[in-house]
Amino acid sequence: MIVRIARKEMTEMFRDGRFRWASAIVLGLILIATLTGLRSYRALAAEQVAAETAMRGFWVNQGAKNPHSAAHYGLWVFKPKMPLSFIDQGVDPFTGQTTWLEAHKQNEFTRRPAMDQASVARFGEWTAAAVLQLLIPLLIIMLAFPAFAGERESGTLTQLAALGVPMPLLLRGKALGTAAALSVVVVPATVLGVVALALGSGFSRGVDDLVRFVAILVVYLAYFLVILVVTLAVSARSRSSRAALLILLAFWTVNSLIAPRAVTDLARRVHPTTSSFAFQQAVTDDLTHGIDGHNPADTRRQAVEAQALKEYGVLTLDALPVNFDAIAMQASEEYGNQVFDKHFNALYDRYRAQNAVSQFGAAMAPLLAVRSLSMGLAGTDVEQHRHFATEAEGYRRGLVAFANNYLRDNTQTGEWDWKASPEVWAQYPAFSYDAPRVASAIAPQLRAIAMLAGWLLLAVIALVRTPAFRID
Amino acid sequence: MRTSRLVRFEWQLLAGDRTPWLMVLLFGALMAYGAWNGLSWTRFQERTIADVATEESGRLAKLDTAIAQRAAGDTTVRIAAVGALGAAGAVRYAVLPPAALAPLAVGSSDLFPYYTKVSLRSKQSFIVNDEIENPHNLLAGRFDLAFAIVFVLPLLIMALTYNLVSAEREQGTMALMLSQPVSARRVLLLKLAVRAGFVLALTLALTLGVVIGTGVPLSMPGTWARVLLWVSVVVAYSAFWIAAAVAVNALGRSSATNALALLGVWLMVVVVVPSLVAAFVTTMYPAPSRVALTTELRKVSDQAAAQGDTAVSQFLADHPEMAQLGALSTRNAWGRTIALQERTEDAMRPTYAAFDAALAAQRVAADRLRVLSPAILVQDALHDVAGRSVTRYRDYSAQVDAFHQSWQQYFFRRVFAEATMTPADFAALPRFTYRDEAMGALVQRVGVAVLLVLLPALLLAGWGVARLRTVSLAER
Asked: Nearest CA to CA, how far is A398 from chain B (Å)?
């Protein structure tokens, strides 16, 4: 019976010219978005590798230099594109692409690509994710809004009821039929995605990207199911198909356009961030006055001096077999690192709290959960950015420590004119970034998963146990 | 029948219904929320600008005192080298203050810096001054008043106008109306006029409420002109959607079809076309790469550093005006730093020019294509009027460039001549004040946008009114 209902529903849709056109258009838009996404992924990935290589070359070939000058010279690191960014580029246009790693200072990421784009880009980028998040739900609404309301208007719903067709069965059958019809879009889009993934990264990160891809697929399928059931539920309860359509379009508008922005502003109000100016001042204050405000630089340096003298068993700095300036610099560096950790972690925790508000907003608008999951799994969210920023900062700290320790072990205190030989710089390994595995990308998404699961559960309950139904 | 009576009847019909008032409440709440967000952002910027000014004035006051003491013969006072003062100690901020109508839009202002610490170093060293913002928030964009107008106002207009003809037919009142001694078209147009007037009056009242509520400085010269510009953009945009409603009504289809058709138009104008335009522009005219620029800059500055003395003397040969100021001894560390820096900048100039040219090409393409959607035109125009557009930022950026040049000139001369700062020198430090562009330019840009929105509006309305005459109003 259920198969028969589904088949009837599907056949009707396939016969409908509007459905054929709409599916073809949506599929075409996904194709265009995927191809341009893939193209830009490959171009940006190649550019990133080239820049990274060039920077390593500059570092290695910087010539004879005092190690501290080398640490000041530092290098730039560039954020790599993640393989699945061709599906969802997430926050990539809005995070800085690069940061300068230098002695004494953790710099922020700068050069946001969005700054160099025409203002129209703020209407939204045309990515596969945009089609999946905005247009396919619209397609589902267009397909399924008359499912019940239409039959009610034409009087066939009463006939079906009179025939003894149980309404829950009818609902399940219609859901199945619509889902089957939708597979003409979803299946080719999935194949396209796998092919694009293979062409793009060639699975350079092993099976992880495939797992991420499958997870993204699951998220979107769950989302489509939620939209489908919401549509059918509204259709089953509406006076007319017109009323059903208007309610559903209002839902779509709030879900896709209004809620994402409204919730963003709400999140900023609940968890405000400071200005960049105040942030930098707070960092500088902490660096000069000490974290607790009772530990000025001079006494810290004296403590380091006493410690060094004790360690080497000598009484004066001149008697030290190593360069005390380097020891002091490294101590100040480690102190600074605590300051940077305190401030940058607080900032990123703020971002996380803001994003949590947005994930909670999914109780109203399921898209908010889907968007968060989609970019989280694609590796283009703020958490991924934070991971990269932390790794880059770790590399900076290692690099500065390398320079300081080299200076400490090879010179005496005060030898500022000494130069290390040109081969030294290659001893510090090149920066290589290993993106987190899918499991750690999921961890910050638990709220979003819970929200989407909640919607899904409601959808399943609606499918299995249909409460009050309008027949006439 | 007299027009005034028809209008009164229609108004009674409209006002007697609960739905329009609910929508008004909702729209009013969204507008208020948007204005509140814009106001908070403006206040945030103003506070930051005040913090920045406090830091600058405190630092400069100390320096002023020190220089005066030194000039009075107190040798215990130490003052940094002139070069160090120009690079850090004496630097000034170039501030872009929020414009008069700033609370009405956030626009592009969340992406661009609104103060710049200009030093004698190269421009690349200080232009990167992003405000702290969660990238996720930048991606979503702000819910500001301009957003409420561009995205939500059309929905309100549609809801009030989508079924003017069809409702009469579906309720069976069409025959009754046709039997009256008044032309049906006149009645329909009056109905439309009443509803359009309702939306316009509401939007204007809300806008005025926002202008007063957010404390826009109305006494400031030009503010009223900007309010008028804002209103004219909103009126033109409303006219476009009313015209679209006329055209759709004139098709003579059912209410459901009308609603669907209007929503389809809205989806195309507000969501699909802008996204496709953005995709086209970024694909065909990709933004030049900042990554490549960063790498290139490092390469060129390394080359200059490696050449050392050769680069310095080459710089002096290229810039005789500097060479005549001083011989640039090896002791003049700042002079040599500047020489190497400027040598690098000279070598980078073609790269910068190519970068800017690529950006300009992208901008030109985007400017041409925005005529495809009134939503893009209106959003840009609203941001422009509120002083939140990329245009204003570019204007600011150009003024910062000019200030940077005068700052460099001021310090380069003194560094090369190995001068020390005197109180007179200190008083002559260049200052930055942002000069808003002449109102004429803004009026012209916004005027063009208004015309480009009104043109399709006129076409749609003309076609619709003409078709209303021929379409069969009677029941089918």
From this structure: 22
Is B151 in Cβ contact with A258 (below 8 Å)? Answer: yes
Residue B263: pLDDT above 60? yes
Chain A residues in contact with B389 by the CB 8 A cut-off are 119
If you average pLDDT over residues A50-75, what whole number do you get?
93
| Beta strand residue intervals within B181-252, DSSP E | none
CA distance A261 to chain B (A): 5
CA distance B292 to B299: 11
Q: Do A51 and B294 make contact, defined as CB atoms within 8 angstroms?
A: yes
Residue range B125-137: average pLDDT? 87
Beta bridge partners of B417: none
Most confident among A164-168, A186-190, A203-207 (mean pLDDT)? A186-190
The one-letter amino acid code at A259 reads A
Q: What is the mean pLDDT of residues A29-52?
A: 90
Helix (H) or strand (E) holding B92: strand B92-95
The interface predicted TM-score of the complex, written ipTM, equals 0.91
Facing B277 at nearest CB: one of A50, A96, A120:
A120
Cβ separation of B134 and A273 shorter than 8 Å?
A: yes
Split at pLDDT 50, 70, 90, the class of B475 is very low
d(CA B71, CA A432): 55
In a domain, A412, yes or no: yes
Structural domain boundaries enclosing A360: 2-464
Encoded tokens for A151: 């039959």
Residue A386: phi and psi, rounded to 5, are -60, -40
For residue A157, give Cα distances in angstroms to A42, A170, A237, B97: 53, 10, 12, 64
Q: For residues A264 and B280, what is the distance between their CA atoms, to the nearest angstrom? A: 27
Interface contacts A/B by beta carbons within 8 Å: 209
A221 touching chain B per CB within 8 A: no
A20–B contact, CB cutoff 8 A: no
Closest to A48 in 3D by CA, of A376, A392, A344:
A392
Q: Residue A348: count other Cβ atoms within 10 Å of its Cβ.
A: 18
Whether residue A112 and residue B111 make contact (CB cut-off 8 A), yes or no, is: yes
Highest mean pLDDT among A123-127, B122-126, B374-378: B374-378
In terms of residue numbers, what domain contains B154? 1-272+375-408+433-476
Tokens of A297: 């630089």
Report H helices in B251-332. Answer: 255-266, 273-284, 290-307, 309-318, 320-323
Chain A residue with Cα closest to B366: A118
Smallest Cβ distance to B282: which of A48, A121, A261? A121
Chain A contact set for B98 (CB, 8 A): none
Examine the pLDDT at B363 and tell me if it is beyond 70: yes
CB contact under 8 A, A58 and B128: no
pLDDT band at A470 (very low <50, low <70, confident <90, very high): low
CA angle B118/B124/B125 to nearest 5° reads: 60
Does residue A471 form part of some domain? Answer: no
Q: Is residue A438 part of a domain?
A: yes
Specify if A470 maps to a domain. Answer: no
- Nearest by Cα to A52 from A384, A430, A429, A434: A430
Rounded to a whole number of angstroms, the distance from the CA of A364 to the nearest CA of chain B is 16
Please state the domain count of chain A.
1
pLDDT of residue B476: 45
Please report whether residue B114 resides in a domain.
Answer: yes
